[in-house]
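hey so i finally got around to running the thing on that chain from the lab meeting. sorry it took forever, my laptop kept dying and i had to restart like 3 times. anyway pasting the input first so we r on the same page abt which one it is
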Amino acid sequence: MGSLNLNFVPTLQHMALAKVAIAIYSDREVQAFERSLNVSFCFMPDEMWMDFINKKVSSLVSVVVLQQRVSNLIRAISYEVYKWRHEHFKPKSNYLVFLRDICWTSLGTIDRLKTALRLLQSENIEVRNRFVLACLYCVEESIEFFWHQMNREQRRQFPKYNSSSLVRFYTAKLKKGTEIRWSKFISVPQPRIKREVAWSVQDISIGLRYFFTRLSSKEKQRCLAKAINQLVYPGDIRFYLCNVNWDELTRFFQVFYLELITYFLHWPLQSLFLDVLRRLWQFFTEESFANLVHCILQRILRNGWRDYDYVSLVQNIWSMCSDDEKERFMKHSLYKAFSVVNDYNPNPPKPFPLELLEECLVELSEHYSPKYLDDSGVIYDAPQLVFAAVLSIDKPL
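ok and heres what got predicted. didnt touch it at all, straight out
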């Protein structure tokens, strides 16, 4: 199957637009407005918040064309912060206090390790919570430091205090001198296996990247199989695939190709989507292709995501199909909605009118109900209540 270059080098324009969008989203007035709505921008229709954002953008960006591009990124930035917040804080925590501590990459994503290292220095966070955070990011020097900062009673509460296997493993190492056996850590949980070796969602969503490179090739494959449906951070999926031999993953791709490709519909990985799709194309069936198309139309376009040119993406997917594949899909009930997007080519270019797609999808929903894994949150969906809070923070101390 060969290797695949998943390196992503952002253009100067990408970096500039992302930087402006992050600055606008982090603005106090914008944060206050989002909080007043009780829902993150990423889960609200445009009419509830886009006028407010457009006014903010126009006051900072003079070029009209760029104004719209910056505004279109706010939903993606909001989703990025939403994921980070739900992985690290209790639902009603005053996370805004720590918004200024977030470190951003030039891609327009949160640098989670740098952010964690900054939070480890914050005295607004209890020592025991900083110990947990250090465990989840495998920051071993901080793990030992915060362990000794806790009193005997606080240390005694571990590992009961937290369900994370990483916390349990590091606690055992500190208490008993037990070395961490990573092969045991990634064992598939079974009823007869002790709780200590069963992954928590925290371990998968946060810690996996930091111990992944310590695993053997077979262990990495087992990790990927366990992590793919667990709301792993999309950027981490790219990291994992850059650290495995693709020739050894044929069986994995045969089983998880649809779940895998959906991660590349997330900001900012969309530019890699078509290359990955070409590599996985051989595994797609007529049904799974329809599921992917429906996912793009329903979950992304219909929900107002404009952080990428998804119309062109749909058109490029169609160009990849053979004549036979096109002929078969044209008989599918989804084709009418698909063709509305695929045939859209205004001159001069104009934003895609969602009302055209809306009518087709409403009609389609009466007799077509696909089943694909974005119900678990992989595709721009509010995660079900699966993330356990890492930091027990309600307000600054």
